Structure formats: C-alpha cells, structure tokens
Amino acid sequence: MAAATIAPSALTADAAAFQGSAHEHGVAELSFAVEDGQVQAELHTPLANLVGFEHEPRTEAQKSAYENALAALRQDDLFTFEGARCALSDVTLDTPGYESPHAGDEHGDHEHHGGHAEIVARYVFACDKADRIRSAGTRLFDRFEGFQEITVIFLGASTSVGELTPARPVLEVE
Ligand SMILES: [Zn+2]
C-alpha cells in the first residue's frame, strides 16, 4: 500500500485557477488589468453562452438573438467597480464574423471551427481612482442565460483570482 501523498502546490494554485483555453459551454474567462488610470477588461466566452448556439445564425430569430447579444456586450454597465468611478471608453468585439453572411450561400449548414465558436470582448474603462478599486463584478449572468461560472483574474497592485457565479458575481480585490 504505497499511498503517495499528493500535496497541493500553493505555488501553482493561482496559475491553475486561470489557465484560459478550454472551450466549455457555461464557462467563460474574464480578466481585469489596471494600467495608467485605466482598467482593461477582456472576456473570452463560447458563443453558446450568449445565444444558445454556435453556428452561423440562419433564422430571423437567430439573427436577431445574435445582434441583440452583440448589443448587450456593448452596454456600458455590463461591469461593476467599487472604490472608483469608471466609465466605459472603448469596446472591441472579436466575433466569428457572422455579421456578413456568405452571399448566395443556399446550403448554409457549414460550421465554423468544428461547430464551436467564441467571442472575445475587450473593454477599456477610464477611472478616477483605478488604484482604489475594491471589487470588480459583472452583470453577464443577468443579461444572458448561458453563463454558469466565470473564471476571473484582477491584475492591480496585487493579483486576485476567483470564480464568479450568479450568486456571487463580484470579485473582492486585494
Ligand atoms: Zn462550443
């Protein structure tokens, strides 16, 4: 009975909590970085979390769901900060490119990336006291039904990591 003791490594705990690459529906990754009085936020999410599908929108309902999702991602109150007043100054969405449906494509059933698609949303906030931020949170759980858990990292004076859920959508920042 060589019962090897597996000691969790405190050194790798933070890194393991934020690996960021797996495509898992319901899950997303969010990062905040304080720099020069600004906060840059970056969200990586499967498209399924936003609209419930990941193929090119085909029906009118799907097209409208897709457009509504992009508009919701551009809302200036999607993220919340305590300790500083932050105003959204820029949004960039890296989408699968569904805005321009293939002209004359009557088949329309080919999928991107083997049936999966992701969106990366980047935000820049101008803050009055970015170094005083005590917490950062998101309303993604309220605005979309597909999010269950969001891995979050906040890079400020120190680094804070955590898991946001509908019940706890805010990360306390150290
Ligand atoms: Zn997927």
Rg, Å, rounded: 18 Å
Which ions and ligands are bound to the chains?
A: zinc ion
Neighbour order of strands in the largest sheet: 4-5-2-1-7-8
Order of helices and strands: HEEHHEEEEHEEE
**Share in helix:** 10-25%
Average pLDDT, rounded to a whole number, is 85
The low-confidence parts are 1-19, 100-113
Commentary on this structure:
The protein has 174 residues and is of the alpha+beta class. The protein has one domain (23-98, 111-172). Helix content is 18%, strand content 35%. The protein is built from four helices and nine strands. The strands form two sheets. A six-stranded mixed β-sheet has the order 4-5-2-1-7-8. The protein has a three-stranded antiparallel β-sheet with strand order 3-6-9, with no helix packed on it. Residues 1-19 and 100-113 have low confidence and may be disordered. It binds zinc ion (ZN). Zinc ion binds next to loops.
Provide a quick synopsis of the model.
With 174 residues, this protein is of the alpha+beta class. The chain has helices spanning 10-17, 47-51, 60-73, 140-143; strands at 27-35, 38-46, 79-82, 86-94, 118-127, 135-138, 149-155, 159-164, 170-172. The chain has one domain (23-98, 111-172).
Question: SSE layout and pairings?
Answer:
Elements: H1 10-17, E1 27-35, E2 38-46, H2 47-51, H3 60-73, E3 79-82, E4 86-94, E5 118-127, E6 135-138, H4 140-143, E7 149-155, E8 159-164, E9 170-172
Parallel strand pairs: 1-7
Antiparallel strand pairs: 1-2, 2-5, 3-6, 4-5, 6-9, 7-8
Zinc ion binds at residues 23, 25, 46, 48, 54, 116.
